[in-house]
């Protein structure tokens, strides 16, 4: 945060959200000095991650020259489960003056989403996680002027 021209934060109204339920809260934007900004967006993202580890052994040679080599293998996968982008505010003049701003939001999550989880052991791990991020979008580029994230 330090010398940043703007600071973003997110506060959720509930500790947990459920498939088919509502997700509500507020995005807070503190602008220290005027920023070039066209929109404030909220992104709700969910993904499944998995990692599998296994070993194979190869034996070479015979007798005293016989050697067994163990090789470690890894496989990783990622699958997107959810991505919802909501524009909380638009700034048609392309800039935002100094000040403190609060943007309430509420959206309904799709039904059928799996629960967050994490499991590991026996040569692998998997997790399903969700996060809520806010971005202040710049007029001159697609990069975020400020970001905030809550998982």
TrEMBL record:
Transmembrane feature ranges: none
Any one Gene Ontology cellular component term annotated for this protein: cytoplasm
Domain (Arrestin-like N-terminal) ranges: 10-137
Any Gene Ontology biological process: protein transport
Gene3D superfamilies tied to this protein: 2.60.40.640
Superkingdom classification of source: Eukaryota
InterPro entries: Arrestin-like_C, Arrestin-like_N, Arrestin_domain-protein, Ig_E-set
Protein name per UniProt: Arrestin-like N-terminal domain-containing protein
Species name: Emiliania huxleyi (strain CCMP1516)
């Amino acid at each position: 945060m330090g010398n940043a021209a703007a600071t973003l934060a997110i506060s959720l109204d509930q500790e947990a959200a459920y498939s088919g339920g509502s997700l509500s809260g507020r995005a807070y934007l503190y602008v220290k000095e005027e920023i070039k900004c066209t929109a404030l967006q909220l992104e709700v993202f969910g993904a499944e991650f998995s990692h599998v580890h296994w070993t194979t052994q190869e034996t070479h040679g015979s007798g005293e020259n016989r050697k067994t080599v163990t090789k470690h293998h890894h496989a990783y996968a990622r699958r997107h489960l959810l991505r919802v982008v909501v524009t909380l505010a638009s700034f048609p003049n392309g800039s935002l003056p100094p000040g403190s701003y609060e943007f309430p939001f509420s959206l309904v999550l799709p039904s059928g989403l799996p629960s967050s989880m994490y499991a590991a052991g026996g040569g692998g791990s998997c997790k399903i996680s969700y996060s809520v991020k806010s971005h202040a979008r710049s007029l001159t580029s697609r990069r975020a002027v400020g970001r905030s994230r809550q998982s």
